[in-house]
Amino acid sequence: MENDLINITVEDQEGTVRDLEIPTDISLSLMEVLKASEYDILATCGGMALCATCHIQVLDDFELPEPGDDEADMLDTLHNAQSDSRLSCQIRITPALQGMRIKIIGAE
Prior knowledge:
The protein is of the alpha+beta class. The chain has one domain: Ubiquitin-like (UB roll). Helices cover about 15% and strands about 25% of the residues. It contains two helices and five strands, in the order ββαβαββ. It has helices at about 30-35, 70-75; strands spanning about 5-10, 15-25, 55-60, 85, 100-105. A five-stranded mixed β-sheet has the order 2-1-5-3-4. A hairpin with a 5-residue loop joins β1 (about 5-10) and β2. The protein is globular. The termini are far apart. The mean pLDDT is about 95.
């Protein structure tokens, strides 16, 4: 069963670190998984890359595809965005995320 799971490490806004095991066959965004796992993610726009309340930091130089235009435009408006900032609503759950570590930034 272990091969059917994606393991992601999540640090919340309070600094608590927890490992998530996500089924590989799930068709959700990272934001949806974080909300379902009861993390404090507002996701005001519902995953449309319009509000940045699902802002995360991708740790350890983990390689993800470049953000799309909408996501990049929204990240450009954030005063606290860094080169490793992403919107969790724009990251689809795939086996390529295995071992990723993130920190939830959220709305600030």
